[in-house]
Amino acid sequence: xxxxxxxxxxxxxxLASLAYYGxxxxxxxxxxxxLWSLVPENAAxxxxxxxxxxxxxxxKETGLWENFSMLPFAQRFEDNLAWLDSxxxxxxxxxxxxxxxxxxxxxxVVGKSDIDFVYYVPVxxxxxxxxxxxxxxxxxxxxxxxxxxxxxxxxxLTNIKNTQLGSSFTYFSYHNNIILSPSPVLVxxxxxxxxxxxxxxxxxxxKTTNYLNQPGVFANVFVNYRALPEVLGxxxxxxxxxxxxxxxxxxxxxxxxxxLERDKLFLNGFSNPENLKDSFYARLQPARAxxxxxxxxxxxxxxxxxxxxxxxxxxxxxxxxxxxxANAPLVDSLAHTFRKEVALAYxxxxxxxxxxxxxxxxxxxxxxxxxxxxKQLQAKSTSGSTNALTEQYGSxxxxxxxxxxxxxxxxxxxxxxxxxxxxxxxxxxxxxxxEMATLRSLLDDISTESVWGKSVAQKAFLEETLQEGNFSxxxxxxxxxxxxxxxxxxxxxxxxxxxxxxxxRFNQVSLQxxxxxxxxxxxxxxxxxxxxxxxxxxxxxxxxxxxxKNRLTSRPFAIQNAIDRSREVAxxxxxxxxHNVTASDKEGWTDTLSSAIRGTIQQLEVGPEKKxxxxxxxxxxxxxxxxxxxxxxxxxxxxxxxxxxxRLSVFDYEKNGxxxxxxxxxxxxxxxxxxxxxxxxxWQPRRMDYRLASAPQHLRVGGRDVILVLLENGYVYALNRxxxxxxxxPFSLRSPVTSDAxxxxxxxxxxxxxxxxxxxxxxxxxxxxGRVLRRQQLLRxxxxxxxxxxxxxxxxxxxxxxxxxxKVAVFDQDMKEIFEKRYVTSxxxxxxxxxxxxxxxxxxxTETGPQKTYLYDAEAxxxxxxxxESSQPVTIYYNEASNNYTLYKVFRRELKKVSFRLx
Length: 903
Known about the structure:
903 residues; 20-stranded antiparallel beta sheet; 21% helix; single chain; WD40/YVTN_repeat-like_dom_sf; alpha+beta; four-stranded antiparallel beta sheet
């Protein structure tokens, strides 16, 4: 009996122990886990979603998914899902298992060169457990996968390798959650984190924040700004990382909501400031946010903008270095005169090898006081030993400051890179640039309203951004393409090129922070420029056909309307009548001339009202007419009947309307006149011994005027206003030249570079001291191959064209071949290059024999899938608002206006 009782007692204890063990395991499995507490602290981003299917569908609607799915890591993920789905049991497919549950995805930098992901997936029901068990069994049976397991600190880690793709992932189960990642290192880190008691959630400061409860929100996105530099460091060159780390120290973390609309991605929410010592926030300590008023002066060709909206701009300075600079008290006083707004703009570059132009805009509280302090600083810096260099450019005064790195002294290290500073006052802004030419170009953009504040596309973008901010970054990925390429690490540049379509397609990007109480409202916008209705892609639509009595003999000359400055054209017929065609497709003024126009039509702003007038040359006359075709006073100028003028060039040295009209004849003689017809001393004529290869160019460098002249025999001249040859000139390129030169102006003659290409394909770069800096020979397949340099419509960039027995090859500024095409005839082709910013590039090639014009886009695809009948070079205008192009062409007696668009 006692033995039986003892046996029953032992059995009861065993059953109780098993029951308690089973209950404990059941209780542990039912214990709810905060998945956020499992995420390692080095996560750069964490994305929480609760509707996988809806997110993918909306990504597809925006067009992002099409490009995102082409990325290598996304393709690998999709491929693995497809393989797993193929062995999933019954109709319980994997996508169905993943849908309608809160899933976390954390993004990490692994090692020094990789990004990897961890997925945290809840298992919510018995049915889902059964699905996973069956899926695991099917994986074991499948020949597509190889599975092995190992114990790590008390957890069973399972590794599954796809034998077909060579990829693998590791997972383990924890309290009804599956944690998996392609990186076993990250999985092990999570296990170690679990084994610590009560790990703190990475997003503990946003515990009560859940945007998923709001309509139209597809994800919560946690941003760890402290880890952000590690992500950017995978792509950006090391010398830029100090600035990246500094800017990233504005905030420490943030929680943002993800919203998607067609062609737009929004991330909005709140970020917490970074309170660490020496952080960007600690230095700036911004109060009230400020509007981006500088948009009225930012050129449309801006690629990247850093905007700081802060009451005291001087806070941007490094206080430890303030006292170290020369004339520190004066610099300090000057820095405190700038208030509310300072911006650093990087302008579009035209090749990967050139540094982008930079412009600083600083808003002055009291312009008179600022300029007075600036004058004092200039005087102390030069000690009277150097004369101040100033230049009058229209109503603006440009000045060189002899204070190295002045912007960085005033606004901090982010504004470094100005060995010398040229400044100009534009309303309440003091504008800094490292080159005088950059300021001139900026003032031209402001004059022609080619600025953000007047751009339809940019205004539409800015309306969707925060109207006030403390710190903002704006990026146009198309304009910034060469800048991104230049500062990318070599190993990342290939990825950049492979994903060019995605990056350029959503070209408008903004990241902004605006103070709200103790946090910063944060807005990230990724936007594709709006497309309005118009001609179908790759299709031509005729908008106008005008037939004249006589055959048209000139190209459609691009001009602006004298009244409203709308874009129109003028054409000349075989009876030498010049016809104006307005932007509203009506015939305007006409003018009967003595002979054919030579060169192009130039436009002048005449009188105090700056009314537009038209100037051009025929074989022996110089004309200037008003908007009704009437000759201006003193015109036309009659030159000798024995002369055969080649072209007219118009110079306005100081942008004050004091024009100089320069013509060259077939013998290489140069004649210069003022606007009243008086001959200029030294130019009656200025003999050049050989015919000119292209129109003379006026260059303004360091307050000096230089007239650059290329001769067909390869000699290069640089002349001053009086026609005198500058030291170092002339010199010979050693080969003939028949095309233009393109100049990149520097601080002085030595730093100003000019690029030309000889007929035999040698690219020569020289400075304005007459010194050849570089020579590079392009491939010349045969002795018949000839080369020309073709500037684009604004003259800021160029292409090089090689023609060889019916084949035309086009090279970019880095001497890389863009495309090569073969045509019907071997006769020389007329090649034009139009660049309207970013990837808005069009190459027009006209065959003079068959009278056909072919248009190609930036990727060398033929536009319209056909040629156009055309006997002359074409004129193309770009409408930024509608993303449409308007082309004018002539053929026989017809002028046609054609519209088309590119995607």
